From TrEMBL:
Protein name listed in UniProt: Cytochrome d ubiquinol oxidase subunit II
Membrane topology note: Multi-pass membrane protein
Transmembrane segments: 6-32, 53-74, 80-99, 119-140, 160-182, 202-219, 231-252, 259-277, 306-327
Record carries keyword Ligase: no
Similarity-based family: Belongs to the cytochrome ubiquinol oxidase subunit 2 family.
Any matching Pfam family: Cyt_bd_oxida_II
Main location per the UniProt record: membrane
Lineage of the organism: Bacteria, Pseudomonadati, Bacteroidota, Sphingobacteriia, Sphingobacteriales
Alphabetical list of InterPro entries matching this protein: Cyt-d_oxidase_su2
Keyword field: Cell membrane, Membrane, Transmembrane, Transmembrane helix
Localization per Swiss-Prot or TrEMBL: Cell membrane
Length: 338
């Protein structure tokens, strides 16, 4: 049953990257949209992220619950040594959700709408930035459980070039996912072209930020190149992701929006596979050379069994409801004639 829990953990992280990424990316797109087009972007975004908005943080909650219940030592280490970016990420989630609700449903339209807009777009940028920083810090071997001062224990564990570049890479991925998702929800050709342009821009930004991640890993002596190219799984996943990018770029001018979404999701899946496979089952790599393993840091066997059955039973109820939610929010597609 331990492997069932581990599979659910990996899938929850992946789904949060995909659905939460598209959600955060909507705000990032608005942040990088020219003022004359902001209202159009906002209107399209409201229509497009409805189903994602309703359920995306469920995957983050599931991830936290699995770590808290099934792997308490891993949960404790993360919540202690990277608590600063964790708090900032959670504050970003709260601020973003609050701003989204008030600016969309507030009965009074006044100057506070401008404040809500700024809170929404900047928290949409900050939240995935710190999510990526947290992810980078867990594998950078900078978390020092033997640190004797505040900075080494709670700041330098996450504040370094590798984690920052992973954070920027995460932001670019979120913008890319949002643009891809919204393309299929546009109402006219002009809107479609605009979001295709944004998808291309953020795809290029993600590739460039990915290059920065590799450079930072070389600078800080993190074996990222070995994780990617030192095993057949990494090489295969990287090759498939590259091929999917090429295919995607040949679909921009077609109406195959669902295929574009699948390809974008496939790319993120391959990226997550690449970055987790080589050091599996180690989930946190510590500065002293040791690691926290999912196999060694598991909780009580009966707790793991109960958690696994709870996850299986929950998925039977949650997944069909989520699929129906997304389906019910989808607008019938209209063919765009140039």
């Amino acid at each position: 049953m331990l492997y069932v829990v581990m599979i659910f953990l990996w899938m929850a992280i992946l789904l949060y990257l995909l659905l939460g990424g598209a959600d955060f990316g909507a705000g990032i797109l608005e942040l990088f949209t020219s003022y004359p087009n902001k209202s159009k972007t906002r209107k399209t975004m409201y229509r497009a992220i409805g189903p994602v908005w309703e359920a995306n943080h469920m995957w983050l909650i599931i991830t936290i619950v699995i770590l808290f219940v099934g792997f308490p030592n891993i949960y404790t280490t993360m919540s202690v040594y990277v608590h600063i970016p964790l708090v900032l990420m959670l504050l970003g989630i709260i601020a973003r959700g609050t701003a989204f609700t008030f600016r969309h449903y507030d009965a009074v339209k006044d100057d506070m709408q401008k404040v809500y807009n700024k809170i929404f777009v900047y928290s949409s940028f900050i939240t995935p930035l710190f999510l990526g920083i947290i992810a980078g810090s867990t594998v950078a071997r900078r978390i020092d459980t033997e640190a004797s001062n505040f900075l080494d224990a709670y700041v330098f564990s996450w504040l370094h070039w590798f984690s920052i570049t992973v954070g920027l890479f995460t932001v670019a991925i979120c913008g890319f996912l949002a643009a891809i998702f919204i393309i299929g929800q546009t109402e006219n050709l002009e809107e479609r072209i605009r979001f295709i342009r944004k998808a291309k821009t953020f795809n290029i930004a993600a590739i460039l930020c990915g290059g920065l991640v590799f450079l930072a890993s070389l600078y800080e002596k993190i074996p990222l190149l070995d994780w990617v190219f030192g095993n057949s799984v990494g090489i295969t996943a990287f090759s498939l992701a590259t091929v999917s990018v090429v295919i995607l770029w040949n679909l921009w001018n077609t109406d195959k929006t669902n295929l574009m979404r699948v390809l974008a999701g496939f790319q993120i899946t391959m990226i997550l596979l690449i970055t987790t496979w080589k050091h599996y089952p180690n989930i946190i790599l510590l500065k002293n050379g040791s690691s926290l393993s999912l196999l060694e840091e598991q909780g009580n066997a009966k707790t793991i069994d109960a958690l696994a059955w709870a996850l299986i039973a929950g998925s039977i109820f949650i997944l069909p409801a989520l699929v129906y939610l997304i389906y019910s929010f989808q607008k019938p597609k209209e063919k765009i004639i140039s």
